C-alpha cells in the first residue's frame, strides 16, 4: 500500500523536512494509501482547531453552535436540516446546537414564508455580532494557510476542491449509515 496515489512521487519531501514536520506526518504524506483524506483532515484541523478554540474561549460556543451561526451569517433564514446537510454534521447535533443558540438568544425561529407549516432560523443582532467578530479571524487563518500557494495555484485548488464537493452526492453511501437513521 505504501507509495500509492499522486504522493508517491514525493514532491515536496525536502520542503517538508525543512519545515520541521513530524516524521509521522511525512509517512502519512508519502506512504499513505488514503493520501487525500489525510491531507483534507490535516488541513481542516489546522483551520478548525485554532478558530473554534478562539470561538469557545470568547463566546462559550461549541463548534456545531458556531457552524449554525456561520451558516446563518452566510444565508439567513435557513432550516436546521439545511445547515445539517451543508455542514456534514448529523441532524441531532445541529438540533442541539439550535436549541442552545435559541436559549442564548443568538438565533430565533420564524415561520417560513414559503411554507407556513415550517420554521426557519434567523440571526438575532447578538448572533450577527458574534459572526461578524469571528469572520476576520477565519479569513486571516485561511489567508495564512493559502500563502504557500501562488494566486494561480489558489485558483486551481479552489476549482479542484469545488469539483470534489459538487461530485460528493454521487459517492457510494455505504459509509453514510448515520445519515439514513
In short:
64% of the residues lie in helices and 8% in strands. The protein has 9 helices and 2 strands.
List keywords for this structure.
181 residues; mainly alpha; Arc Repressor Mutant, subunit A; two-stranded antiparallel ribbon; 9 helices; globular
Description:
With 181 residues, the protein is mostly helical. The chain has a domain at 50-165: Orthogonal Bundle (Arc Repressor Mutant, subunit A), CATH 1.10.10. It contains nine helices and two strands; from the N terminus they run ααααααββααα. It has a two-stranded antiparallel sheet with strand order 1-2. A hairpin with a 2-residue loop joins strand 1 (107-112) and strand 2 (115-123). Helix 3 (35-59) crosses helix 7 (125-146), helix 4 (63-74) packs across helix 7 and helix 5 (80-87) packs across helix 6. It is globular, with a radius of gyration of 19 Å.
Amino acid at each position: 500500500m505504501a507509495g500509492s496515489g499522486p504522493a508517491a512521487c514525493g514532491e515536496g519531501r525536502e520542503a517538508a523536512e525543512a519545515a520541521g514536520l513530524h516524521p509521522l506526518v511525512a509517512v502519512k504524506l508519502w506512504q499513505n494509501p488514503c493520501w487525500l483524506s489525510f491531507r483534507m483532515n490535516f488541513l481542516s484541523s489546522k483551520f478548525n482547531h485554532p478558530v473554534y478554540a478562539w470561538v469557545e474561549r470568547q463566546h462559550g460556543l461549541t463548534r456545531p453552535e458556531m457552524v449554525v451561526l456561520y451558516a446563518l451569517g452566510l444565508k439567513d433564514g435557513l432550516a436546521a436540516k439545511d445547515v445539517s446537510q451543508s455542514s456534514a454534521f448529523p441532524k441531532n447535533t445541529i438540533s442541539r446546537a439550535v436549541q442552545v443558540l435559541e436559549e442564548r438568544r443568538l438565533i430565533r425561529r420564524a415561520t417560513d414564508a414559503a411554507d407556513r407549516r415550517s420554521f426557519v432560523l434567523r440571526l438575532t443582532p447578538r448572533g450577527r455580532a458574534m459572526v461578524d467578530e469571528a469572520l476576520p479571524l477565519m479569513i486571516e487563518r485561511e489567508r495564512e494557510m493559502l500563502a504557500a500557494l501562488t494566486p494561480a495555484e489558489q485558483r486551481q485548488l479552489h476549482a479542484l476542491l469545488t469539483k470534489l464537493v459538487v461530485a460528493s452526492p454521487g459517492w457510494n453511501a455505504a459509509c453514510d449509515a448515520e445519515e439514513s437513521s
